[in-house]
Amino acid sequence: MERTKNIPPAFEALGGRSAAALFEALPTPCYIIDAGKLKENGKRLFSVIEHTGCRILLAQKAFSNYDLYPLLSEYLSGTEASGLYEARLGAEEMPGREVHVFCTAYRDDEFEELMRYADHIVFNSPGQLKKFGAAAKRCGKSIGLRINPECSTQEGHEIYDPCAAGSRLGTTRAVWNKEMTEEWRALLDGLHFHTLCEQDSDALEITLRAVEEKFGDILPEMKWLNMGGGHHITRRGYDMERLERLITYAQDKWKLRVYLEPGEAVALNAGFLVSRVLDIVENGGTRIAVLDASAACHMPDVLEMPYTPPLYLADEPGKQQYTFRLSGPTCLSGDVIGDYSFHTELRTGDLLVFGDMAIYSTCKNNTFNGMALPDIYKWEPDGAFMKLTGFGYQDFKLRLGSRK
Ligand SMILES: *Cc1c(COP(=O)(O)O)cnc(C)c1O
């Protein structure tokens, strides 16, 4: 497993204090959203807007804890949705701001309602554009088509590579040439591409070159170009200057407006998952701490990506004196979070704090094994905790049957 997220910035806000001193009063497991860090990320993103005149949207599939939308709306231009529910959430909770939707395939029975919330509709294929485009245009929407520049810039994470061979995501130039006659081209206001994942602006530069090579003749007809998400703009060391240069290049060259829709970058390192040790077991030479938090249920990307999440005051296995494997309490053998080392022995009842847990966590968790969903707290810059929501047995039961 990689340790791609094991970086100290995840814990800057904790200032070296002990986990117990910080979080002892909270029930575990629980998620904590760090409002101060979210604000810092917002400011960084807003500086790109200020320097270039582009617009930046929150991709809600990564982070959709809407109690924080008022804070984010001071800096961002609106929200991006993967479908009807996220579009409605963006419209309700970030009112007055732009709502953009990209969905791989829209449903007939949802489209009319979607028109109530969305400002920009992006279609994945000429088939979808032909089916829904004219109706969306009549509703006054700005219409886009997702293109596939067939330019992979990432290795190892094929599950996150929309340019992988045989991908369903985006329209290749060959398909465009076959399907996009003058009639359909006239419907389009913009083009959209999303090909990056946790990448720096060097990958964007390579991608933009591919976009220009393949679709450069189309872009002068467009009002906007949406460069998707995957830009790790708020990561320490990210090359902002090159990002701004690329945005300005596109806007000047094709006389259009650039949109970005990062998810991760908005809430990067802005959350924690706090957990307690329930038991310590041993097998062969391996000592295993069983936690009240589960990789499978509460941090699904740990298994899906996979990666080993950063853990406060812990190190890679073997680096400090005591090495433990951390695992979830479910019956899934593979519900393993990772191996870590500590300078003291882990004991039942110890508090452990995982970092960078605001993204792809609260909006992606599940109740497999009848596991409870962790409560969610907001952590104010003044140090106060505010409970945003909590869950119980009914949240588990209601998803499964007819009776309360
Ligand atoms: C996932 C996704 C995003 C956000 O990606 P991040 O990696 O979280 O920045 C933006 N746009 C589209 C179309 C996506 O699928």
Automatic annotation (TrEMBL):
It holds the Pfam family Orn_DAP_Arg_deC. It comes from the Bacteria. Its cofactor is pyridoxal 5'-phosphate. Gene3D superfamilies: Alanine racemase (3.20.20.10), Lyase, Ornithine Decarboxylase, Chain A, domain 1 (2.40.37.10). Keywords: Decarboxylase, Lyase, Pyridoxal phosphate, Spermidine biosynthesis. Residues 67-357 form the Orn/DAP/Arg decarboxylase 2 C-terminal domain. One of its GO terms (molecular function) is diaminopimelate decarboxylase activity. SUPFAM superfamilies: Alanine racemase C-terminal domain-like, PLP-binding barrel. Substrate binds at residues 264, 301. One of its GO terms (biological process) is lysine biosynthetic process via diaminopimelate. This is Carboxynorspermidine decarboxylase. It comes from Christensenella massiliensis. The lineage of its organism: Bacteria, Bacillati, Bacillota, Clostridia, Christensenellales.
